[in-house]
Amino acid sequence: MTKRPNPLDRYALDITPGELTWIGVRPKRREPLQSVASTKAVATLGLEGDHRMGKTPGSGRQVSIISEEFIAQAAHFLGRDAIDPALLRRNLVVKGVNLNALRRQRFTIGGAVFEATQLCHPCARMEENLGKGGVAAMLGHGGLCAKIIESGDIALGDAITVLPPAED
Question: I need a surface site. Which of 21, 24, 67, 104 has the fewest CB within 10 A?
Answer without folding.
Answer: 21
